[in-house]
Design goal:
9 helices, 5-stranded parallel sheet, 274 residues, Rossmann fold, 15 strands, OB fold (Dihydrolipoamide Acetyltransferase, E2P), single chain, 5-stranded antiparallel sheet
Amino acid sequence: MNSQLLSVNDKDVSLLNWEDKDIMKVIIEKQRRGRRIMYNILIVDDEAEQCEALKIILERRKENIVADICTTLEKAKILCVGKKYDVFLLDMKLDEKDGNEGGLQLGNYIRSIIPYKYTPIIYITSVPEKIQAALSDTGCFRYILKPYTEENINKCLDDVLHSPLVAPETFSFQNFWGGEIRVPECSIIYICPGMNRRLQIYTKDGCYETISYTMEQVENILRYGFFRCHRKYIVNLKCISEYDRSNRLLYIGNEIIPVGRKYKEAFENIWRVL
C-alpha cells in the first residue's frame, strides 16, 4: 500500500484554476461517498424469525446499516466483545429462566463494558410492566411493544441514529510533522510495526505512519472489533476474508497475516461466531 495519501477538501478547490476545479470536485465527491457512515446494530431474540424480520426492516433503510442477529445470551456476550456496535435491539424475555429475563441480564452485561456505557439499548417486549426495570437497571434508550409494525421500528431508529449517542468512532494520532490525523476506526484494516519504532496504520485509503503509540497502547484503544493476532499485528476482524487454521494464517485482501501461537485459542473463539 502507498505510504503517501492524497486528501482534498472544499477549501483546496478554491485555490485551483477553473480547469482543475471540476476534476477535484469529482474526487471530493468520491471521498465523501467512500466515507459514508456505517451503523452496526446487534439484534438479540431467541426467536430466529423475529431476528430475521427486524434485520430486513433495518437493512432496507436509507442508512448504511449492518445488522447482526443472535438467538442466545451467551453468543451475544461474545459478539459484544468481538465487534463494536452502535445500537442494541434486545428481546426482554431472551432465554427466560425462573422468571429472570435474559434481555435484562444482557443489558447489564453491555453496560459493564466501558465503551458501551452510553450506547443505545432498545428493548422489544410484550410485557409493559417490565419497562421500568429496563429503564432503571440499564438506562435503555427506548422500548418497543409487541406486536410492532415497521413504522414503530423506523420511528425509533430515526430518533436513535440521529442522537449524539451514535457517532462514528475515530482513531487519532500524530504524523512526523506533529499534525493530528483522524481516521474512522472502521476504515482501519490492520496495524503493524514499521522502521525506527514507527507504527504503520493500513486503512482503506492508504497507509499512515506514526510514533504516537506502541502496539500495546493501540491494543487498549482499539478494543472492540479489533484483535491482536500476533505480537506484530492488530487486525480489523471485519476485514478478514479467510482463516487457514492449520497454518494459522489470516487473509485480508492480498495480505497474509500470521496468528501467533499464544493468540490462537482466543482468536478462534471469536472467529467461530463472526
